[in-house]
Amino acid sequence: MNAITQDQPGIALPETEIERVAGVYAATGHARAEGVLEEGHAAMLVHYMMTGAEWWRAFNQGERTWDLGPDSIAELENTPKGAQLNAAIYEGAREQFQRYYDVSRVSEDPAERAARGNVLDRLLDLFNSDAGLALFRRLTGDDRIALVDGQATRYQPGHFLTRHHDEIEGRSRIAAYVLNLSPRWRPEWGGLLQFHDDDGDITTGYVPRFNTLHLFRVPQCHSVSFVTPFAGGPRLSFTGWLRSA
Question: How large is the average pLDDT for residues 187-202?
Answer without folding.
Answer: 96
